[in-house]
Amino acid sequence: MEAVVVKNLVKTYGKEKTVAVDDVSFSVSRGELFGLIGPDGAGKTSIFRMLTTLLLPDGGSASVDGHDIVKDFRQIRSSVGYMPGKFSLYQDLTIEENLHFFATVFGTTIEENYHLIKDIYVQIEPFKNRRAGKLSGGMKQKLALCCALIHKPTTLFLDEPTTGVDPVSRKEFWEMLARLKEQNITILVSTPYMDEASLCDRIALIQGGKILSIDTPQNIINAYPDRLLAIKANEMYRLLKVLEGHPDILNSYAFGEYAHATFRDADTHALQAYLREHGLTDVEVKDAEVTIEDSFIKLLH
Amino acid sequence: MQDDKVIVCEKLTKRFGDFIATNEITFDVHKGEIFGFLGANGAGKTTAMRMLCGLSSPSSGKATIAGYDVYTQTEQIKKNIGYMSQKFSLYENLTVRENIEFFGGIYGLSDERIKSKTEELLQRLGLKTEANKLVASLPLGWKQKLSFSVAVLHEPKIVFLDEPTGGVDPVTRRQFWDMIYEAADSGITVFVTTHYMDEAEYCNRISIMVDGKMEVLDTPTNLKNSFHARSMDEVFYQLARGAKRGD
Amino acid sequence: MKQFLAFVRKEFYHVLRDRRTLLILFGMPIAQILIFGFALTNEVKDSEILVVDYAKDNASQELLTKIGSSRYFNIRQAAFTHKEILGTFQKGKIKAVVVFPANFNGDLLHHNKAQIQIITDASDVNTANMITNYLSSIVMDYQNQINQNLEIPYRITPEVRMLYNPQLKGAHGFVPGVMALVLLLVSVMMTAISIVREKETGTMEILLVSPFKPVLVIFAKAFPYLALSLVNVVAILLLSVFVLDLPVKGSVALLFAESTLFIITCLALGIFISIKTDTQQIAMLISLMGMLLPTMMFSGFLFPIENMPVPLQIISNIVPSKWFYIIVKSIMIKGLGIASLWKETLILLGMTVFLLLVSLKSFKIRLQ
Question: Which of B41, B174, B198 comes nearest A169 by C-beta?
């Protein structure tokens, strides 16, 4: 059964009708970990707010657990968990008070669903009498997740949970999500970090309010149409400039310590010679392992 | 002292009561270098950056920025550096042109310079048609590029970038790095923090801070070799996992 | 109900943990009462008093010495006619004039009673009151002194005249005024700010995406401020009764009922402001400019409404605090009951119902 179904959803803002979400459709199966991947301003938050009934769509329709997001907003509000992009707990309440408050508001108790949050909560429990405002970024995030989970939601909406969080905390957070998935909770997560895409079951790449592609991360990578080369030389900036000047170049860009590039006709030997001709040394050319980021860049072109 | 060292730090320390935010960090940055300044949240990056920008006085240690002392010559430091952060960059309710003119003004450029710089910048960024639009109406990527250009408008010796590319799409992110390379090529030293580990690879050298100390400082390749890691991500993870403190 | 209580408890945590909120909540009313009550009282020390003595006999001299030896007064003698007294007041230095009629001693001896006249400048109502009280008690003292061992007592009656403000408008008026101000601040501003804060921090989003009814969120947020405002009413009344010696002449129960009504009016206003604004600063600005200022201007607390131009008098009618001010003054000072206040109460009730309806109607269950 589909947990979330989105059909031709449209959202515009203001008098000028700036389009934030442009005819977006997708569906998420029960128990799936679905990622909405795209930069800031792509429309991720607007989609999440419409699905959590906080915003009314200007077109199209959507349902969560079979409930319509406009008509049945009450049912949706009682059954989903939502973690907004900004840390949205009470900074002047302690960890325990926050958790207790949200449990009560959702008509449940901490004890009743403790098994759901246990893994996460034990990590912050030693500080349970500390006020939320005094917690580190990673701990705030864990508390927010506990509060969003405490009423045993069927579907969990996490809006950019890892933005501004350092790589270590990000990794820990995704490990927590993987464990939650085992509890058969449907999870929708949005992120601007392309490298997090591979941790989702399926992803939608989104830019400018439009979905560029929806599939499993592997399928999206497999669908990459060109031969992608990874190129290294002694000087990155020069390398990029030289690549841009190559007559057969399709696209080139920095990618970590390598430059990634696609050509109309990819002859690695000729390319190496070309680079050396232009004064670059330590030249290395090999086939690149395509990542979601490469696919995204390709789709944007 | 070598002439091309624009940042010289020796045992720079900042204490807040019992808490040592930045603990005896020692490093040099050369002219035209792209220097990556990494660390988990709360590792002491922000505190260190503030001291280097002359915004906060160190508790102990020595540091000179562009040859000026961080204790006594903060005014000169501020004239010789540019600063851009993700949080504060431009005034949203001023137009593109007004923003450029304003920042040119506070850095003390002459009216003529401001005028020519403004036109040059609008031309280069392809923002001619948007010049009289409010910054608020620009896409995030453009804002970030504009705000970088404004930070180097007065041709500073060093530019400090605090997570400049957070939330920006991958294409714009790379265009942004093109601008960084260009600036470095023209002799501006770039001091940058980021949470994107692939961006760490673009730096000439990177340092990683853990619990207030500068644990490592080397080129990306050397760091990966010495940690037997395939990517910077792994290096960072190995180092920061042992961290005790959060922000 | 359990949810509601959890909400109320959370709200109390917020209030009790924020020192600034606490200060505004409880520091402000106390400070205002004390400032209004005492700042003026202190001026009575060393007040310049003009004595016009037509009698110049033993009794008048004795009484004068007694007044002069008090630390409150400095006596200046003058031979003025009644008309000239006005002029000395206008120069501002003189706080009161004591007039002994010719034949003061004679009246006392032959008729066993005499009069003195005390004229004060009642444009400064508090000082005028204090001075009259002190002078009267000195006269009483003197009277007791000469009455020792006498079978038929002498009586000296001070005849008090208040110049410029004969009905003592505004005398003690500051307590009802402060009450209106404080309740307004607490109920309008604090409620508006605390609701807008939830919008600003994003917690409102989470609360909306919960089974808790959105309207209940609003009520649960307003409820603690109703309770806190009532605590403030108690505090103000205790202060005015025990520190300022201003008793409540009318029914205390009625006073509380009317206060509750006014608090609900204010809460409705606060909720309305919170719905229409998105940042705490704007909510505060609107509360201060839009509510506090009109209360100071138009409630009759600082400036008598009767003296205002007619258009302003008409405007003053839509300010809820004006009606509350009238009600409280009538109950506390005049001791009137609901029979004489039903009209004002009804107006206030109408405003409350109207504001509640408007704010409930404009309340949104979604984000913009």
Answer: B41
